[in-house]
Amino acid sequence: MADIQLRDLTKRYTDDVLAVDGIDLRIHDGEFLVLVGPSGCGKSTTLRTIAGLEDATDGTIEIGDSVVNDVSPKNREIAMVFQNYALYPHMTAAENMSFGMRSVSDFSAEEIERRVADAAETLGIEELLERKPKELSGGERQRVAIGRALVREPQVFLLDEPLSNLDAKLRVQMRAELLKLHRQLETTTVYVTHDQTEAMTLGDRVAVLNDGQLQQVASPQELYDFPENRFVAEFIGEPAMNVLPVELRATGHGLTAAHEGFTVELPGTTDRAALGADDRTVSFGVRPEDIALASSLPDGAATFTAEVTVTEPLGEQLLLHCRVGSAEIQVKVEPRSQVAVGESVTLGFDRERLHLFAADTGETLYHSARPKADPNGRAEQSHEPASSEGLAPEAEPTG
Amino acid sequence: MATQTDTSTTTTTETLRPTRWLPEDLWVHAALVGSIFLMAMPLLLAMIMSTQTTSEVYEVTNLGIGSQGLANYWTALTEYNFATYLFNSAAMSLVIVVGKVSLSLLAALALVYYELPYERGIFMFILLTLLLPVPVRIVPLFQLLADLGWTNTLLALTGPYIASATAVFLLRQHFMSIPASLVETARLDGVGPLRFLFRVLIPMSRGMIAGVCVITYIYAWNQFLWPLVAVTDKSSQVVQVGIRYIQGSAQAGLTRWGLIMAAAIIALLPPLLVLVALHRPLLKTFAIQQK
């Protein structure tokens, strides 16, 4: 068990290619931290640098209490699981799991046998031990690969997109098993994925990376509710948050965001300066699930009209692509709503879930809900049901 | 047989075509048969001549099995020392195969799995040696061997062939097709490079190594010029040069072609056997892909 502390971690491949750009991150003992971001954002490089497969160009990596920059990978007490499983094709599952231990001669034969048997039992792969990788299914191979990591009894697990090669159903199943395993072992785990759903479901905390820089580290719900910038807002959530340019206007009791297709009051605002916005034009963000048909809104809520261009029945919800002025927005509505393509619909926002981002930097200027920090650094929604203009509870985001 | 099945399947699938009595790919087959015949011709002639007497060989129209039967083969093996030559050739080829493949494995391991300074330059330099094959270096090489006192030894025969750019290249390409995560896993586990080579890379590359061995073996077996220069002692000579010796022993002013052809067939058999036994890995070797 160990903490991991990254200080100003930088990895530069050539003068032009900066893969990781000054990351400061503390991963707590026993935590399941997910590194997520688009392709090429530096998440895998960060993981490989922690593993020691890449040297850091700058900055330090601490595992436990010691700086490990110059410690060889095998002495870092880590175990890594790769996307392609990295099983040796000519060895059986048991041989694959024990090969590393047999190679270093620190372990007795009984010890190796015991650990392999324990890991196999934990993962439920006892009957697969004598099979070779090509006789195993994808899920079974991944279990063996995880088993190989378990037998090392490491301080830290590093998982590099371990579920990406599995089909969708198996991925969901393995996700649950990974969580169960983590709860059982409580080993510090760093998990890399490009899949934001995986990140949200697995992580105690999720670190979002883009262009080698850390965008935000927070619990999944906090990332979803209170993104610190436009990138995080658009990256987390499926489908992505609608972001539209709006003009800020001061009215008698606060600010109003005006778009060519709609105007919406921003609760709890007094003037632009209080938001830190010195420009009239900002980016307005609202998630598809925080827009609803007027019919499901309480009476008196502000509404606007939009033209439906595409409908996508998702089963549990109906996704509408709508044209508002010159902009395109996506809206999630009740699954069996009677909406046809080409029709005009009346929509309204959940005023508790509006976001404003600076037009130039993308920094968050405003959330209509207020984060409340708890001792674990997690945030909760501040709004009580008392705010009567809110949507009906079933339209609340589920994360 | 094959043409019959061809016609039947094409009739069922393409019922619109009226003329079915000739297979559609008749010309392809004719061209294949023709080119195979052309390629096999020298071999067929050699086999026929190897059974003929010298005078029968000189009757150009005589293309039947000759009167000698297998007597020429026996003569070559006994009177002309071919048993010794075969043994020498086998020893030379074996040493070259083992030496070349071992060295190339180590070189490819270093090139693929280690970060060497100027790695690309080193690889280019290795490839550059392809421009300088043994025949080009024959004079300085001979001088070197003479200075070392290696003349007429197995070392002289095999030494210049141990380092091979071709084998390094083939193995490097193959190693590059093995996922990097395998070696990374090994590094994380603290598996040493040689253990990784013997326990992981070689078992995973068996087919490729067998293919490289076949190529190397046939190449080594067919060496002529270098053994001719490096070995002067007949008892240390190899089979390809041995054939040349027979040419020297003309009978009544006539070259004994029957005997030479028998010797050539004898020289051809060992690599043929190896090729037949290992043709599968050889085919794989030439279908290498780089991921």
TrEMBL record, chain A:
Domain ABC transporter: 4-236
Record's function text: Part of the ABC transporter complex XacGHIJK involved in the uptake of xylose and arabinose. Responsible for energy coupling to the transport system.
SMART domains according to UniProt: AAA
Keyword DNA-binding in record: no
Tagged with keyword Ribonucleoprotein: no
Membrane topology: Peripheral membrane protein
Biased composition, class Basic and acidic residues, residue ranges: 371-383
Residues spanning the signal sequence: none
Region annotated Disordered, chain positions: 364-399
Quaternary state and interactors: The complex is composed of two ATP-binding proteins (XacJ and XacK), two transmembrane proteins (XacH and XacI) and a solute-binding protein (XacG).
Main location per the UniProt record: membrane
GO molecular function (one): ABC-type transporter activity
GO annotation, biological process: carbohydrate transport
Enzyme class (EC, first level): translocase
Pfam families linked to this entry: ABC_tran, TOBE_2
Keywords annotated in UniProt: ATP-binding, Cell membrane, Membrane, Nucleotide-binding, Translocase, Transport
Protein name, entry field: ABC-type D-xylose/L-arabinose transporter
Reaction catalyzed: D-xylose(out) + ATP + H2O = D-xylose(in) + ADP + phosphate + H(+); L-arabinose(out) + ATP + H2O = L-arabinose(in) + ADP + phosphate + H(+)
Its EC number(s): 7.5.2.13
Record localization: Cell membrane
GO cellular component: ATP-binding cassette (ABC) transporter complex, substrate-binding subunit-containing
Similarity comment text for this entry: Belongs to the ABC transporter superfamily. Carbohydrate uptake transporter-1 (CUT1) (TC 3.A.1.1) family.
Species name: Halobellus clavatus
InterPro entries: AAA+_ATPase, ABC_transporter-like_ATP-bd, ABC_transporter-like_CS, ABC_transpr_MalK-like, ABC_transpr_MalK/UgpC-like, Mo/tungstate-bd_C_term_dom, NA-bd_OB-fold, P-loop_NTPase
From TrEMBL, chain B:
GO biological process: transmembrane transport
Location within or outside the cell: Cell membrane
Example of a GO cellular component annotation carried by this entry: plasma membrane
Gene3D superfamilies, per the entry: MetI-like
Keyword Cell inner membrane: no
Keyword Metal-binding applies: no
Cross-referenced PROSITE patterns: ABC_TM1
Transmembrane segments: 26-49, 90-114, 121-142, 154-175, 196-220, 257-278
Membrane topology term: Multi-pass membrane protein
Pfam family, one: BPD_transp_1
InterPro entries xrefs: MetI-like, MetI-like_sf
Keywords, ordered alphabetically: Cell membrane, Membrane, Transmembrane, Transmembrane helix, Transport
Ranges where the ABC transmembrane type-1 domain occurs: 86-278
PANTHER family: ABC TRANSPORTER PERMEASE PROTEIN MG189-RELATED-RELATED, SN-GLYCEROL-3-PHOSPHATE TRANSPORT SYSTEM PERMEASE PROTEIN UGPE
Family, per entry: Belongs to the binding-protein-dependent transport system permease family.
Protein name: sn-glycerol 3-phosphate transport system permease protein
